[in-house]
Write a structure and sequence with these properties.
With 430 residues, the chain is α/β, with parallel strands linked by helices. It folds into 2 domains: 9-186, Carbamoyl-phosphate synthase small subunit, N-terminal domain (Glucose Oxidase, domain 1); 190-412, Rossmann fold. It has 9 helices and 25 strands. It has helices at 2-15, 61-65, 131-137, 148-158, 189-193, 218-225, 263-275, 285-294, 390-406; strands spanning 18-19, 26-31, 36-43, 48-55, 73-77, 81-82, 87-88, 91-94, 99-101, 112-114, 117-118, 121-122, 127-129, 141-144, 161-167, 199-201, 207-213, 229-235, 249-252, 280-283, 298-314, 326-337, 347-353, 359-364, 372-375. A 10-stranded mixed beta sheet has the order 16-18-17-19-20-25-24-23-21-22, with helices on both faces. The chain has a 7-stranded mixed beta barrel with strand order 2-3-14-10-5-4-15. The protein has a two-stranded antiparallel ribbon with strand order 1-12. Strand 24 (359-364) and strand 25 form a beta hairpin. Helix 7 (263-275) crosses helix 8. The N and C termini lie far apart (47 Å). It holds the Pfam family GATase. GO terms for molecular function: ATP binding; carbamoyl-phosphate synthase (glutamine-hydrolyzing) activity. Its EC number is 6.3.5.5. Pathway: Amino-acid biosynthesis; L-arginine biosynthesis; carbamoyl phosphate from bicarbonate: step 1/1. It catalyses: hydrogencarbonate + L-glutamine + 2 ATP + H2O = carbamoyl phosphate + L-glutamate + 2 ADP + phosphate + 2 H(+); L-glutamine + H2O = L-glutamate + NH4(+).
């Protein structure tokens, strides 16, 4: 009797979940390579073009969808059920613990999403709406009821593919001609998503870190302010060299698209690397910009790495990272740095991907006298494993140590950077 009661408890719990039915409107995914997949629509009832990619993450769909690196992309989730815990409110304070949003940006960044089975019931104590309602409110379309395994297999075999989502009456139209597909990689997506004006977070922090924003995930900024850093967020192409001596360190964030569009930033960073001796850390796009500034080339991968389970091997030790250890990481990138021999003088490989041998990190050598690191993965995760989260502690500790030894110098000829301070919570959920 007791056993039967225990078995029935989960069923009762599911019955208490919030019901959020999806529409029965037809939807089609057309791929430029010729294949089409038919399902039903949820979210916004509009048709769009984009770049079709897949992610192997099984949790944190809200964080993935708000990651600016997914801008312009039709995101296919390989996990069969998405939406079961709904969507939380996205309001958070601007203080020493948070940066204005709960997720990774103020709105959904992906152009559209594709799931095998979108949950019509969701249950979580922080949930305020369903995945379908959230997508509709952000004008983002979705398709469910398609074979995401088949789509993923195609993308693995032929690589990331341009796509078209047709909703409702548009499903009766023929598939677009090859020339009609929109390629987001041809545009400077970083310029679209980066902050337009500088702003400051956590103004009472004990060290000052400048952040070049290529499309920053909020958890990168959150990871810095929680370690007692005052963070000044700058546009991606800001002339940091004009104000660099006001700061104790420089951070370069992740971002969407082709790093070749950001050569302007790489050339400015090359001057910084040559003339500045304070710590520098870059993640994802920021890592690629550091590599390009050092003299490495970036290339487009076949289908990229997207998910929360990518193993990387550390080739060198630095701070909390120990050479020879494998770390499980969160990743979202289509481009990578080329591994070349010889490596540029003063630089060495830091991490290598255990699955495809792509470069996952570079660092300055001890002989160079510099403290510069770049990693292709996301130590801050959100979502994903926290194997490498202490890299933020390492970076902030190096900035504090340099400040303790040399201080924060403000050159007399420099005009202090006047920027607004973020103090209040964001006004709207997203």
């Amino acid at each position: 009797m007791l056993a039967r009661y225990i078995v029935r408890v989960p069923t009762l719990s599911r019955n208490l979940a919030t019901h959020a039915p999806t529409s029965a409107v037809a939807a089609t995914l057309h791929l430029k390579s010729g294949q089409s997949f038919y399902g039903k629509s949820f979210g916004a009832p509009r048709s769009i073009f984009g770049e079709t990619v897949f992610s192997t993450s099984i949790t944190s769909y809200t964080e993935s969808m708000t990651d600016p690196s997914y801008r312009g992309q039709i995101l296919v989730f390989t996990s069969p059920l998405i939406g079961n815990y709904g969507v939380p409110s996205n309001k958070a304070p601007f203080d020493s613990q948070d940066v204005g949003v709960y997720l990774e940006s103020q709105g959904i960044q992906a152009a559209a999403i594709i799931v095998g089975d979108v949950a019509e019931k969701f249950s979580h104590y922080k949930a305020v709406e369903s995945l379908s309602e959230w997508c509709k409110r952000n004008n983002v379309p979705g398709i469910t009821g398609v074979d995401t395994r088949a789509i993923t297999t195609l993308l693995r075999d032929q690589g990331t593919t341009l796509g078209r989502i047709a909703i409702g009456e548009d499903t009766a139209l023929p598939a677009p001609d090859a020339s009609e597909y929109w390629d987001p990689s041809k545009e400077n997506l970083v310029d679209q998503i980066s902050t337009k004006e500088p702003y400051v977070l956590n103004p009472t922090g004990s060290i000052k870190i400048a952040v070049l924003d290529f499309g920053a995930k909020a958890n990168i900024l959150r990871s810095l302010v929680r370690r007692d850093a005052q963070v000044t967020v700058l546009p991606w192409n800001y002339d940091f060299n004009a104000v660099r001596d006001q700061y104790d360190g420089l951070f370069l964030t992740n971002g969407p698209g082709d790093p070749a569009h950001c050569m302007e930033a790489a050339l400015k960073l090359r001057t910084t690397l040559e003339e500045w001796d304070k710590p520098i850390f870059g993640i994802c796009m920021g890592h690629q910009i550091i590599g390009m500034a050092a003299g490495l080339d970036a290339y487009r991968m076949t289908f990229g790495n997207r998910g929360h389970n990518q193993p990387v091997l550390a080739l060198a030790s630095a701070g909390s990272i120990k050479a020879g250890r494998v770390y499980v990481t969160s990743q979202n990138h289509q481009y990578a740095l080329k591994l070349q021999e010889p490596f540029p003088q003063g630089w060495e490989p830091f991490f290598i991907n255990c699955n495809d041998s792509s470069v996952e990190g570079i660092k300055s050598t001890s002989e160079s006298g510099k403290k510069v690191w770049g990693v292709q993965f996301h130590p801050e995760s959100a979502g994903g494993p926290l194997d490498t989260i202490e890299m933020f502690t390492d970076f902030v500790s190096e900035c504090k140590a340099h400040k303790a030894e040399f201080g924060t110098v403000k050159a007399a000829a420099e005009v202090p950077l006047e920027v607004p301070v973020k103090r209040a919570a964001v006004a709207a959920t997203a």
